[in-house]
Amino acid sequence: MVRRREARRASFTHLFTTLLWLVTCFNEFNAVKIVKIVVPEIIQYGVQDAVILDCDYIYGNNTSGLVVKWFFRNKARPVYQWIVSQKPQDMGILRGRVDLTYKASNDPLKMHRALRIVKPNTDISGDYTCVVSTFMEEDSRTKQMIVFVPETNFRLIQNKTDDDTVNVICAADGAFPAPNLTLATPERRLDGVSHELKLVNGRYSAVASVTLLDADLPLPAEFICTLRIPLAKYAVRKEAIYYPGPISTTPEMPTAADMQLAAAVGSKGEKSLIRISLIYVL
């Protein structure tokens, strides 16, 4: 009796394993699978005329209903769709911005799998999801692309006040994504720094400022402002030398824009003493 039960159990296990193997083989035989998605991680605005986002895949014998879709930031609505045997379509934020004649492959089932976006701007920064599907299977992959813009105006000014203090002000305009500004000396990062960040016409303006006592500073003192755009893996810094006490020489006088910035931050004085060198750290 026991032997019969064991034999039945072994037979059932073998049958189940065989059926599972057959189902797996059937799925693989008809599967569609993305093998590689190529999305540039970072591109600089204005450097290239177009950018290509590619989504390569393999498919089985059953390709009925094969569709390639690209989604931007979320999966609610596609920004690109190609149904095999039909013309590709661009939609949403990419409408009129995709080269619909571009062919990523000569394979008629892969021909229009990729996006060739013309004149990429900062508004198309974000996550891109490629979805390839048939009536039987579906696969998806997601990657992020950042279109970044370096700062157009980066300055470090020191505005001398009447009560033996100095306002150190670092400002940058025209950057994207949002930049981070830090003020420091060669020895340490400065405390008590206030920050402002504004988005104007799709570009960020940032200001960092701090007021320091002359009595707490060495002679001379060196200030360093570093601008970072973490999402773009970009950094640049500017340095200035400051001499506490009475102003005796002025190697570089502040511009009208510098004085307006100092006034906006709340400085009282009218002069700055600056020696500046610009260093890029990529």
Automatic annotation (TrEMBL):
<protein>
    <recommendedName>
        <fullName>Ig-like domain-containing protein</fullName>
    </recommendedName>
</protein>
<keyword id="KW-0732">Signal</keyword>
<dbReference type="InterPro" id="IPR036179">
    <property type="entry name" value="Ig-like_dom_sf"/>
</dbReference>
<feature type="signal peptide">
    <location>
        <begin position="1"/>
        <end position="31"/>
    </location>
</feature>
<dbReference type="InterPro" id="IPR013783">
    <property type="entry name" value="Ig-like_fold"/>
</dbReference>
